Amino acid sequence: MQNEPEVTVVRLGHRPGRDERMTTHVGLTARALGADRVVLPDNAGKSRDTIADITDRFGGPFSVECSGSQKALIRNWEGRVVHLTMYGERIQDVEADVRAASTDAPLLVVVGAEKVSFDVYEAADWNVGVTNQPHSEVAGLAVFLDRLFEGRELEREWEGAEQRVIPKATGKRVESVDEG
Ligand code: SAM
Prior knowledge:
Blueprint: E1 7-11, H1 20-32, E2 37-41, H2 45-58, E3 63-67, H3 70-75, E4 80-90, H4 91-102, E5 107-111, H5 118-123, E6 126-129, H6 137-149, E7 163-165, E8 174-176
Helix pairs in contact: 1-2, 1-6, 4-6
The structure holds S-adenosylmethionine.
S-adenosylmethionine (SAM) binds near residues 112, 115, 134, 137 and 140.
């Protein structure tokens, strides 16, 4: 998002079939709530295509890619790393520090699928719990991004969209966006 911390979300692990919707929703949630990019595992090509298609239709900028080296991305990240985990520090206790650190360094937000190995906990600058209860990477990511941007992501403008939803109290209205 323009004039906001630069945020990349990395999805660790993907079980084809079982995780298809979850991985797609991690990407769609990252896009809708203000992140700039999502990096999915190599075997999540279907989710990547769905997220790219939504971005083409509903706008960006947002980039999605697959990578076989998520762990290296985390290890070598030139910026700060947040790992979302139910075992982490309470978001309400660390969000101000994360926000302050993200103004001048790109932020990598790590979410898991199945068990996350301990090296990820060690590589993170913050292990952050959105509550210390088990729930989902999609819910954790949504609350985290909203706290990071303090709600400003809800006002963002979208570029290059083919269609736009017109908010309505009742019913559905979608308009084509004219170029130029
Ligand atoms: N059981 C796995 C483990 O012990 O690592 C976690 C599985 S959980 C379904 C998948 C992901 O959801 C986690 O890796 C984490 O990123 C996210 N998640 C679940 N509960 C969370 C919480 N309370 N706060 C932040 N993230 C959470």
